[in-house]
Amino acid sequence: QVQVTESGGGLAQAGASLTLSCTVSGGSFSDYAVGWFRQAPGKDREEVGSVSWKCDRTWYKHSLRSRVTISRDDDKNTVYLIMNDLEPEDTAMYYCGADETWSKIRFELNAKYWGQGTQVTVSS
Q: What is the phi/psi pair of residue 104, to 5°?
């Protein structure tokens, strides 16, 4: 049973940095592509970025690429989303999704396994 767990959200001030964590357990970590998504109230879910070990690639939403970084810790089966220079527009529920197929994450904005989400609220 694969489980995905996010953590690290909270309240931050504009200009601050925040690191979200996504732990994938119950499977072979390297088999999965992992995507970070967010959804603000009244808006569609959007992909923030994703990483595929198999394809050895990392993708970022163009408008965010100067402020976000995705990294991983294989020993902890964890993928991190590091967000810098936070803006109030970053306020959203952030979700982590894992799937064996990166294209599902990238082009369907979907994943086989999802976490429960972690709320990020940025105050001005």
A: -65, -40
Q: Which residues contact 13 (CB under 8 A, 6 or more apart)?
A: 86, 122, 123
Reference 85, options 99, 59, 67; nearest CA is: 67
Residue type, 40: A
pLDDT, tens digit, for every residue of 30-81? Answer: 889 999 999 999 999 999 999 998 888 899 999 999 999 999 898 999 999 9
Residues found in the chain: 124
Q: Tokens at residue 122, please?
A: 């940025």
37 burial (CB, 10 Å; 0-12 / 13-18 / 19+) is buried
Percent of the chain at pLDDT exceeding 90: 85
Torsion of CA 26, 28, 29, 32, to 10 degrees: -100
Assign 85 to helix, strand or coil.
Answer: coil
Place of tokens 């408008």: 63
